[in-house]
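Issue: copy button drops trailing tokens. Both records pasted manually instead:
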Amino acid sequence: MPKGPNGEKRPADAVGLAVYVARIATGEVDDAPLDDGNDKAAQAMGKKGGAARAASMTPERRAEIAKKAAAKCWGKE
């Protein structure tokens, strides 16, 4: 069965999907994205922290980290 962006089940056949879309359009079914359960303030602080860390690093250090990550990803030493 096909799944939506948040893992919800949706009809696989065209007629069933058309009925489902019509129900969403008329308001019978709520198709709003579900809350992922994460704290929005914590997510915002994490994004700020990552940007601050990148800004404080030298280009050489960023390149060193990127090379290490590529080596892990591609299995090269």
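Record 2 (pasted manually too):
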Amino acid sequence: MNMYGDELEFAVNAVRRAASLYKGRSVPGVEKTNGMGIYDLVTDLDTEAERLLRNAIEERYPEDRFVGEETSSAEETGGRTWIVDPIDGTVNFVRGIPMYGTQLALAIDGEPVMSVIYLPEFDEMYTATAEDGARLNGKPLKMKPCDGGLHGSIVAMCDFSRRDHRYREVQYDIIGSMYDKVARMKMFGAACCDFAFLASGRVDVHFRYMNHIWDFLPGMFVCRCAGAYIHPELLKKNFLLITSDEAVAQEFCSSVLKNIEV
């Protein structure tokens, strides 16, 4: 029996309803920035989708907390807390790039116990609980070691930070030192795709700075349930290195990060 099966079923249905608000819609005419410039957009559909999810959660689980990208000023996760990103990859969405989606997680005292990522343009629903593991459209996901080690790996990098120049400098240095040590580097512009593609074996490594909890927690839990390795020392320094196997993570650190202070 899945301890959080009811919450998972509810979350899948709620996320599909939220995605139905924006999938296939023309780009909203009214856009605004969240204070970080033209590259951090918030559309009316972001807030509309978050409102739908928040109302559904409050109606079904009235005692639970809610943390959402568009409406929450704090990221407190004590007790039972739902963490929501209504449209992750809004810039992609606005530009007609199909790499975006809705993601959420349920955390208890800060620890995720269930998460969902939905990529509507691919009709891919990623789900995760500790009991059932990670699944893609209901089929189990189990990550496999990368053939060829780091040199044979495809690495997904998060977008450059626009909030902290120190993170940008680390990202810039990593990309510069990594070009001849890996097979390919990708920057999808949406955390939901970074984590979903890692869990499903399309990429082998994901490296990012730990920004807001709604950006990384849902996907990190999906990948963890699929068998991903998370580098513990980098996590303490507010960076996430998550891979298909530990050997690749150690090789990444020793060959790519050896001259970079993080």
